Amino acid sequence: MLKRLLVAFLAITTSMSAFAASSKSAEAIDEGMWLLMFIDRLNYDDMKDKGLKLTPEEIYSVNNASLKDAIVSFGGFCTAEVISSKGLLLTNHHCGYDAIQGVSTVENDYLTNGFWAKSHDEEFPIEGLHVNFLVEMGDVSEQVLGATTDEMSPEERAEKVGEAIAAAKKGLTEKFGEGYEISIKPFFDNNAYYYFVYQKFNDIRLVGTPPESIGKYGGDTDNWMWPRHTGDFSMFRIYSDKDGKPAQFAKENVPYQPKHHLPISLNGVKKNDYAMVLGYPGSTDRYLSSFGVAQGIEVFNPTFVDLRDVRLKSWKRFMDADPKVRLQYASKYASTANYWKYFIGQTKGLKRLNVLEKKQAEEAEFMNWVNASEDRKKLYANALSLIEEGYNAQEEAVKANLYFSQGLWAIETVKFAYQATAALEKMDEKEAIASLEESGKGFYKDFDKENDKALALVMLNKVYKDLKGSKYEAQFLSSIKTDSTDFPAYIDSLYATSIFSSEASFNNFLANYDKEALNADPVVELKNNVLGWYLSVVRPAMAGPNAKIAEGNRLYTKGRLEMNGGMSGQNTYYPNANFTMRLTYGQVLDYFPGDAMFYSYYTTDKGILQKEDPTNPEFILRPEMKKALVEKNFGKYADQNGDLRVCFITNNDITGGNSGSPVINGNGELIGLAFDGNWEAMSGDIAFEPELQRCINVDIRYVLFIIDQVYGAKNIIEELTFAKEKAPKGKPFEALMPTKY
């Protein structure tokens, strides 16, 4: 899955660098996560050559309805698209997983059985879920950087930049008024600044989801793999007040009428067809240095994988033993396993593609360029040495940071104790207790005491063992205030006496609130000590080195931009992903994953049946699904050969956060939705691999087959807009784009 990606980087030799990616041609590699406001001047001719029929104004406009108005940031971690005039949203099943699990119970298990609302009244409101529409973006680099000079210290520069951002944000807030959220973000390692204006909707309701056996078919086994047969989709709806404005949940709210929604094509795809993805990629680091790559391979990735492996194995024992615990921890397990597997693949990819050596070659080229000019030496001579010094100084701290974030902070009672004490510190007592009564319901609904107790014991043992002999050993033991040989007795006592160990004891505490009892609670004490260790020992050890790395990166990126054409590069090259809307375009393509191996660009219903295994929960087919497949009850969703296409792949450049993004053809019609990357290119967020990197998408025809033919949710089909050719019953696609608004 692509959800919540954490780190990434870039290569230069066989993989085209971001600085060279602007040299677009018919033969060019389809690398790049492009900001929509630069599409006209940067990419449009190449996009037309590959099959785009829209104008730049039809993709991004601030005056007229455009494609951007049908794309939303979903929950701050995924992407979704509006597919009807009634605010119907389509995103991935794994993006909606938390929401689906949250409204599921053992008696009404929508995660296992699926759910389809037959009317608006049956749609489930999802507490805490929101979507953001992008209204406008723009460049404020001059305003933000205008008061800075090359002679300033990093501290002076940061102060001036902060003041300028505050002033720019104030001006934008006054311009747009109430009801809009303004964000100003740095790009190109703080060498450019762009603003983004959003409209946020908070009343989001679950409309439909297939059973987990469809939405997660293949489970962890198939995660990040191709060929794929996963129906990774779910459906929600945006509600607004009667005037179409954002509003908190209320029964009188109405389905939102969007400025634009995506029409659907049932014509399918063929090899080399144009395909573009619009969405919110979360994080890449393609300007990363060789020192960062080395730390990822040798320190960060293996430590991260090791700690998550411990967590997954501990949870799995209890999930396999109890259906209730399986449901409680299903979403947590899936999210944790996602990046456990991702970082295993990333490390393999970085080594296989020799990314470290390629980065070192880039840096040697850069230093040759710097040393050829006295003026350049003054500006950039220390860039790489600052980066190297920073990484060398923080190696042990990086491990300790992970022992905290992926180890000790994974203990659920400890983390919830932090949330509870923080609420009581920030709010007045009455307000905090009311808030905690609500948050407690959500926490304990998906909490199992024995499961968390076992994890606490294994994590304390793990962290102590790994820190033994390091400079952090004494501080860690001091923080938990117990002898290392007595962890079992310590954990037994902690869970036997803490107010956080059960919902009943927590509610009893809230009903008889006693601040002294809270402060004396053993879980609160453990939380305080562990957090104190992190804040007083680990984080300070990261701060100085991180500051050096940041300043070195700023100079290195600025110098590389200058080396490749000057600071006009901010309008020529794509910046790293940072969860702002991007467009990536390319083609439907097959690939050769290895010697004597070939993968077609699509999968069919045959593969679902071939993978079926009634003994493996990841490959189970429910009777209604198997019946439809065996009888080939595909209706209008079959291809020209009578087969049902399930998934297809493109060479679109995507990353975490793109989950749920629409895959759109040259006419602006929806043909699928992105949900994964392929195993052979797991290093892609660091080094784009043109021959191997593929975006895995569920075919929109498979989505509609499940909704229509398998589960009979005709009400959903009837509110969609279809391209004229091969359209089932429903609203026909009359015009390419809507009128002005």
From TrEMBL:
Name under which the protein is recorded: Dipeptidyl-peptidase
Annotated function: Catalyzes the removal of dipeptides from the N-terminus of oligopeptides.
Native species: Sediminitomix flava
EC number: 3.4.14.-
Signal sequence extent: 1-20
Family the UniProt entry places it in: Belongs to the peptidase S46 family.
One GO term of the biological process aspect: proteolysis
Pfam families assigned: Peptidase_S46 (PF10459)
GO molecular function, one term: serine-type aminopeptidase activity
Keywords: Aminopeptidase, Hydrolase, Protease, Serine protease, Signal
UniProt xrefs under InterPro entries: Pep_S46, Peptidase_S1_PA, Peptidase_S1_PA_chymotrypsin
